[in-house]
């Protein structure tokens, strides 16, 4: 009878631990989804601000730099040297063959 009580207690304990673990994972998933939603909203906000800034003040140094960077990105995309990692000529896909 003592073994039956111990086994019952062990089952309840493992069930409690499992339930707590599921609750913790659910809470963690909720927090991660909230964080991702916030990051997406902030990224959209930054993109909109950047567009407004480029339109409203096209003579500033920042607008000129943004235009140069956009042109460079477009040129690199057209050139085909952007690899699967999303980097222009990364060292994995385009290793350095010879050194000086």
Describe this structure in words.
The protein is mainly α and 100 residues long. It is 74% helix and 0% strand. It has 2 helices and no strands. The relative contact order is 0.04.
What are the key terms here?
2 helices, 100 residues, single chain, 74% helix, mainly alpha
Secondary structure: helix percent: over 70%
Rounded Rg: 27 Å
Global shape: elongated
In what range is the share of β-strand residues? under 5%
The number of helical runs is 2
**Mean of residue pLDDT values:** 85
Low-pLDDT residue spans: none
| Main pleated sheet | none
Number of β-strand runs:
0
Helix and strand element order: HH
Structural class, by secondary structure, is: mainly alpha
How far apart the termini lie comes to 81 Å
Summarize the structure.
By secondary structure, the protein is mainly alpha-helical. The protein has helices spanning 2-56, 61-79. The chain is built from two helices and no strands.
List the helices and strands and how they pair.
Blueprint: H1 2-56, H2 61-79
